[in-house]
Amino acid sequence: MEHGHQHGHSIERELECVSQVPIFQSLAEEQLLSVAQVTRPIHAVRGGAVFNAGEVSQTLYIVNTGQVRLYHLSAEGKEQVLRVLNPGDFVGEIALFTDEIHGSYAEATMTTELCTISRESLTNLISRMPPLSMHLLGALADRLKAAERQATLMAIPDALPRLAGYLQVLSHDQSGVVDLPMSKQDLAAYLGMTPESLSRKLHQLVSDGVIETIGRRQIKVLAVNDLAALAPQ
Amino acid sequence: MEHGHQHGHSIERELECVSQVPIFQSLAEEQLLSVAQVTRPIHAVRGGAVFNAGEVSQTLYIVNTGQVRLYHLSAEGKEQVLRVLNPGDFVGEIALFTDEIHGSYAEATMTTELCTISRESLTNLISRMPPLSMHLLGALADRLKAAERQATLMAIPDALPRLAGYLQVLSHDQSGVVDLPMSKQDLAAYLGMTPESLSRKLHQLVSDGVIETIGRRQIKVLAVNDLAALAPQ
DNA sequence: CGTTCTCTTGAATATGCTCAAAGATGGTGG
DNA sequence: CCACCATCTTTGAGCATATTCAAGAGAACG
């Protein structure tokens, strides 16, 4: 029965993880410590499972370093990528409010450090630190916006505008050179097309001078305007 | 400069609206009054605009009675339905945290009563009533879950599983008989297909004995198992 | 350096879209 | 109250697009 982290080892690691996370960023040093104290670190190797679909969860998972891939498994055994978690991103917020089983698998794509907070601890933290709830609400609102954009993007029957819309969002964050957050076959599933179609559409964009491929996981956007013209809205 | 609602008229209407809303439901009578006091009612007729895309918003809109349709307008002028707000549903939460313009149009599909709360008032309320933030978080988490499910559903290239998945979600809530929340042509846009395809796929489900149509806006699910078999997961 | 996985390329097929028109439905005004 | 009109929905046929199936090229990994 381990109830805390007062086993002599410092909570340095927990503190580092917590302080990296945007939703905790504006907290005072003292409050960060409170958060760190209820945090449990998790280590996952490449290909390792963070959690599996069907498992009951009452935990918030926050990625510190590395990357986690969330995906569904279709009836035919195909993987449908839901989302990719990069440092600062989190998952499990739904389980914090409704007693539910995980709808997806979570797998580390590289060596990954996460920190976890139990539902009980988080609700405690929120009641003690009101600003925290505002940050959480903001983060959820952002995710919601992204998810709704994704849903409307997917409703487009043609593959090219879907791809263009996706690249457009990515290129907003970074300037020019876009790092693809997943493999091409995962990206294809994410965009609702086959790897073959993705390959062809990418090739088309390259031929048209809109983009340039750098290696296997980078794309350089040459003509932002053309991309916007192809994307919806 | 109207600063409040103490103009002698009762806040009965505001109170009624507020008390209908799930996120406020568990509040005490006294707290409900506080909420009602910062609420402004809005009336919209069929076809009337609640707000338009491009407008700046710092307001939360909550539907009391009636229905509001949220939609995008594509470059070709086609309407892409994002979501339909029924009594108790709300929109505008994103604008509460990030200064942003509306990404969609909001139009009443019938005579509709809404109540609105400004960003300033809501943040005030939250700081004064901590449980409120938990309810908001819960509501956002639910919406997020629905949006992510929608996004993965849309990523399926075949129309039939998309439709089946959608009907499956609806039939979970109600038992057997499903009320369609929008017209067939809107539903088609929402599901990422043409009205023609939707009509054909519905006909196919009827032929297969999976569903039965009741009038224009109701569907009776006869074989839940068959529906689940057609839907993904 | 070879093995394995990912990605690309090529053809045939199938599915949904577009265009066109007819059939329902519901609301409105005479 | 009924007929008319606008709108929504359905049905049909040809066409465009993406998928499927198959095989080859290219990276990444041990």
Automatic annotation (TrEMBL), chains A, B:
Keywords: DNA-binding, Transcription, Transcription regulation
Claim: Transcription is one of the keywords in the record: yes
PROSITE patterns recorded: CNMP_BINDING_3 (PS50042), HTH_CRP_2 (PS51063)
Domain of life: Bacteria
A Pfam family that the UniProt record links to this protein: cNMP_binding
Domain HTH crp-type: from-to ranges: 157-225
An example molecular function term from Gene Ontology annotations: DNA binding
Domain Cyclic nucleotide-binding, first and last residues per copy: 23-143
The UniProt record lists the keyword Transmembrane helix: no
Matches recorded under PANTHER family: CRP FAMILY TRANSCRIPTIONAL REGULATORY PROTEIN, LISTERIOLYSIN REGULATORY PROTEIN
Protein name per UniProt: Crp-like transcriptional regulator
Species, as recorded: Levilactobacillus senmaizukei DSM 21775 = NBRC 103853
